[in-house]
Design goal:
By secondary structure, this protein is an alpha/beta fold. The chain has two domains: about 180 residues, Rossmann fold; about 60 residues, no CATH class. The protein is built from eleven helices and seven strands. A seven-stranded mixed β-sheet has the order 3-2-1-4-5-7-6, with helices on both faces. α1 runs antiparallel to α10 and α2 crosses α3. The longest helix has 21 residues.
C-alpha cells in the first residue's frame, strides 16, 4: 500500500495477510475479480502496473492471467517484500519487476513509461496527496489503455452503514489520526474492540457473523480481520465523491468512464477509465 513516510504501516498488515490468510481460495477470487471488472477475459499480451502493490496478490493475478510485463511498486518496504515473495514463489519471472517507489515521485513515475492496464485499488487516498497521486497514476496509461482505481467515498451523513461502520468520513479521518498516535497495545485493543463491534452489528441486523466473516474473502480475496486493521489505521486518509473523481479525471485527461461500482457508505467507489486511443 502506497503511503507517505509517516502514517500507518500498511506493509506489516500485508505481511500478516501473506503469512496467515493467503489461501488458494483467496488467490482464485483475485483471478476472478481482476478480469471481471476490467471486462477482459485475460491479460495475454498486455502490460500491467500495480500502483501501491501491497501484498502483491493482484500483481500475481496479472502474471497468472498472462500479462506480458508486470511492474509492481510500493513505497513501503514490507509491502515490497511481500510482493517479491509472491514473485519468488513463481520462479522470479523476468517479465515481473518489483520496485520500491512512490506514486508521488513525478520523475520516477515518468521513468516507468505507459501501460495497457493501470491498477491501484484503495491506495491513492492514503498518500497524503490524493489528487497528485491520481494525476500521476493517470499518466501511466498508454493510449487506448485502462485505469482501475478505488477511492474512499465521501460520506457526509452520520449513521449506521450497511457494513456495520458508523459515522461520517470526517469522523473517521479524526479516528485514524488518533489510532496512529497510540502505542501498539492500544492499537490492538482498538482492533479487537472494533471486531467485536462488527460481530454485534451483524447479530443486531439478523446476520450470521461466521458466515459474514467467511464470505469476506469474496471481496477480492481479502481477509476480514486484516481489512479491519487497515480501516482503523489507514492514515493518511482522504475521500471523494463519484462526481469529484469523474470530474477530475475526465476533465483533466479526457478519459472515458467505462465501469463504476459506487456506494453511499464509507467504502470505496471503483472506477474504470479508458484513455482515448491516439
Amino acid at each position: 500500500m502506497q503511503t507517505t513516510t509517516e502514517g500507518y504501516d500498511f506493509g506489516s498488515n500485508w505481511r500478516s495477510f501473506i503469512d496467515h490468510h493467503l489461501t488458494d481460495e483467496r488467490r482464485q477470487e483475485a483471478l476472478r475479480s481482476l478480469p471481471a471488472f476490467l471486462r477482459e477475459s485475460s491479460l495475454e499480451g498486455k502490460t500491467f502496473v500495480d500502483v501501491g502493490c501491497g501484498s502483491g496478490l493482484f500483481s500475481w493475478a496479472a502474471y497468472k492471467l498472462g500479462a506480458k510485463r508486470i511492474v509492481s511498486f510500493d513505497v513501503n518496504p514490507n509491502s515490497v517484500a511481500c510482493c517479491k515473495q509472491l514473485r519468488f514463489d513463481e520462479g522470479e519471472p523476468a517479465n515481473w519487476e518489483v520496485l520500491q517507489a512512490s506514486v508521488l515521485d513525478d520523475e520516477a513515475m515518468r521513468a516507468l513509461g505507459e501501460f495497457d492496464v493501470v491498477y491501484s485499488w484503495g491506495v491513492l487516498h492514503h498518500t497524503g496527496e490524493m489528487w497528485h497521486a491520481i494525476e500521476n497514476t493517470a499518466g501511466l496509461i498508454r493510449p487506448g489503455g485502462l485505469m482501475w482505481i478505488a477511492i474512499y467515498n465521501r460520506a457526509d451523513a452520520l449513521g449506521l452503514h450497511s457494513d456495520g461502520r458508523v459515522g461520517s468520513s470526517r469522523f473517521w479521518e479524526r479516528e485514524k489520526a488518533f489510532y496512529n498516535r497510540l502505542p501498539k497495545m492500544g492499537q490492538l485493543a482498538m482492533d479487537y474492540t472494533a471486531a467485536m463491534g462488527m460481530v454485534t452489528a451483524y447479530l443486531l441486523s439478523g446476520r450470521n457473523p461466521i458466515r459474514e466473516i467467511q464470505q469476506h474473502k469474496q471481496n477480492r480475496g481479502m481477509s476480514w480481520l486484516v481489512d479491519i486493521r487497515d480501516w482503523l489505521g489507514g492514515w493518511p486518509y482522504e475521500y471523494a465523491s463519484v462526481e469529484e473523481i469523474f470530474n477530475f479525471v475526465h476533465g483533466r485527461f479526457g478519459y472515458a468512464l467505462e465501469n463504476v461500482i459506487s456506494t453511499n457508505s464509507l467504502r470505496n467507489n471503483e472506477f474504470l477509465f479508458r484513455r482515448p486511443a491516439a
